[in-house]
Design goal:
Blueprint lengths: L10 H21 L2 H16 L8 H43 L14 H40 L1
């Protein structure tokens, strides 16, 4: 299967990507569980309780510093991978909803634009929404006036 650039992707790369995605998913799901938090709190408590046993030595402090640094470093990559895939999946779903609805198909793929281009589109959309709201309010006022005129003509 070709990559985003159109170049063929080696089979081994796809296998590794799938394996990494599976590991990232499972890890990020596990990291968000209450039991995982309790285990982490337990590790910190055991470390803190053993402080006097090791006379609060530099090595004792190095253990927790190294452990938390390694876990944090690895989790950044795993969680970012999961977030990237979730974001891409949501974008595809939104693109499909736009494609099959009466929304403007020109919005499909706008996630690839620059920040400035996105801001310009956002401003235009907000302006259109405000204009539509003003138009709806005008139609509502006209409808009320027409009803009042009809009611007064009947009396």
């Amino acid at each position: 299967m070709p990559s985003k650039t159109g170049a063929p992707r080696p089979e081994g790369g796809r296998d590794f990507s799938k394996l990494f995605g599976d590991i990232a998913n499972r890890t990020s799901q596990a990291a968000g569980r209450a039991t995982t938090f309790l285990v982490a709190v337990g590790v910190v408590l055991v470390w803190a309780i053993t402080g006097p046993l090791f006379h609060f030595s530099d090595t004792w402090q190095l253990v927790i510093n190294t452990g938390t640094t390694i876990v944090t470093f690895l989790m950044v990559f795993l969680i970012q991978n999961s977030q990237n895939r979730d974001s891409a999946a949501i974008q595809v779903k939104l693109d499909e909803l736009i494609r099959v609805s009466s929304a403007q198909n020109s919005f499909v793929g706008i996630e690839h634009l620059t920040d400035e281009e996105l801001e310009e589109i956002r401003i235009k959309c907000e302006s259109r929404a405000e204009a539509e709201k003003a138009g709806e309010e005008s139609v509502e006022r006209t409808g009320k006036k027409a009803k009042q005129a009809a009611d007064s003509a009947v009396e």
